[in-house]
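Narrative progress, year one. The postdoctoral researcher (J.K.) led the effort to move from monomer predictions toward full complexes, under supervision of the PI. The following entry was the first complex the group processed end to end, covering 679 residues in total.
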Amino acid sequence: MLKTVNLHKKYNEYSALKSLNLEVGKGEIFALLGQNGAGKSTTINILLGLMKATSGDAYINGISVSEHPQEIKQHLAYIPETVLLYPNLTGIENLDFFSKIAGFNYTKSELSELLLRTGLQELAHEKDLGGYSKGMRQKVGIAIALAKDAKVLLLDEPTSGLDPIATADFTEIVRQLGQEGRTILMATHDIFNAVSVATNIGIMKQGELVQHLPSKSFTAEEVQDLYLKTI
Amino acid sequence: MNNYLYKQFFRNRGNLAALLLLWLAGTVGIYTGKRFLERNEDIIAKSASYQQQSIAKNVALHQDNMGLLLYYLKFNFVNETPKLAALNIGMRDLNPSIQGVTIRNLEEQKHNSDFYNPANAAAGNFDFSFVLVFLFPLVIIAFCYNLISEDQEKGTWKLLSVQSGNLRRLIDAKILLRLLAISVVYLILLLTAVIWIGIPLDTHLLIYTSIGWLYLVFWFVLCRWIISFQGSSAQNALVLVVCWVAMNFIIPMSANLIFQKIYPVKEGLEAQMAQREGYHNKWDEAKAPTMQQFYKAYPQFSQYKVGENVGSSYVWYYAMQHAGDMEAAGAAKAYDQQLKHRNDAAILLGYILPNVQTQLMGGREAGTGMENYLAYGEALQQFHEAQRLFFYPLIFSEQRAGLVDWSRQTVKVFSDSRKSDPLQLFLPYLFFITLLFVLSNQKFKKLC
């Protein structure tokens, strides 16, 4: 599970996060909505241990991010807006490489299965990543996250720029991961996607979580109205 | 994991091209050294027969005049050129590896050598040491300057950072792979040199190889430290190239100017002048003071008296020649001292600049440095003196040339048998490698 307690981040005089309190339980998918600069990516970067909070702390499975920035990485997987990998390695090689640096050794058939699970066709596995579309790269990114077998997943606008079919495929995988009991925090601009997959939705504005909604109780249109009114 | 780092490295054609270029440059450097060595060996080999021919011809001409015969006869003294000199020509292209001297005054002959084009001296030799000191670091910089920044700039860093619990190990694996690639090229080149030139597998080669490799490791560790600041690729490249320029040109050149100022070597000309005047003026002076000086130096020849009214005498003639050396002795000693001081200062500089250390210690092991030049100069003086002491009694007692066993007057060889202090050789490298490693580790602690 994932938790932030009075998380605060300041850049000089500008507060990117203001006392953010957030809790995402096991099997929950929490979608963070908000304009650019609302603090979504800052939250994710702090949770990843890539950025230090000015005050407050975040916890992954009860482990303090500020105190154990290396240890929490074992519990986390991350899928960025654009999964950037090594173009001179094939898809399966990239997956193997990133799995190995996380300490996992898979057989070729296991790696292939992971890629197939994300919907990446077998024909593409052995192709250099240089020839992959964004959607295909995102799928390799998901496979990397799956291979790590992390209990907490942080997704930073993962469907941005994907075509509708790729978005639907991606959403389905995220839903499955939630059903498997993983904790997922997803920053996104895609309200409809958020409503369709998330168990909870939060709207951020100027570094604050101004709305916290159980997504099942709202339609996408209602969330959109609320979002527009809030920001 | 290393398998993929290996694939990434070798699938980059630029990396392969750089390694190939390095191998090519190294091979050209070895070829340059081989040509130098062959020319040197050829001259030395011919000198033996030339000396015998010259002795035979002059003995036939001056059978009854030993004094005149020894005026002409030159005896060659070789500064042994180790095969390793092919890899580090050093000062051997400027200073002759063989010198022919008569038993007349030494100081005039000492600095007589082949005319050498100073333009070539300015450019230096494109030998293996040049490739090692100047080109290898450039390729190392090209391999390492963006080891972190490339991932940061291409966007893979964040994912790497999340996936890996130990990014330092990942960076070190990348550096190690590059060190391995460079070391393989380095060792292939040395192996080529060993086989092609026939360099013996001895301690000198082992030391030369070790200091060269430590120099390469130093550059890798320097790169590790610079990239640990996590600057952009452009910043890292700029800083490393500035280091390269400063270490190879700005600091050594500035230091050289300072050394020249502190230790001016004006005594070279002074010695020549003192010797010339010391000898030539004696023709116009009374013989007694010249002879007294000579008898004082060589009491064993005091029975060969020279009267003031004697028109010509080889005892007096060679005493005058000797006087030239005696009067130039102070300046000659000071000249050698100043050169030694300069070299000592350069050695001190080598303690803080691994490139200078590599050049100096490489030269020391190959017998091509200033220390060898000075040691050879000293040995030449001893050889000259030995020849004088052998021939003086024969000349002064007006022996016939036929009495001498000329076949024993072969070319003599000076072997530089000085041993290097391992502490002095390796400590500067080990100190800087350790220091930079520790400093970069401190910076790497902040890596996410």
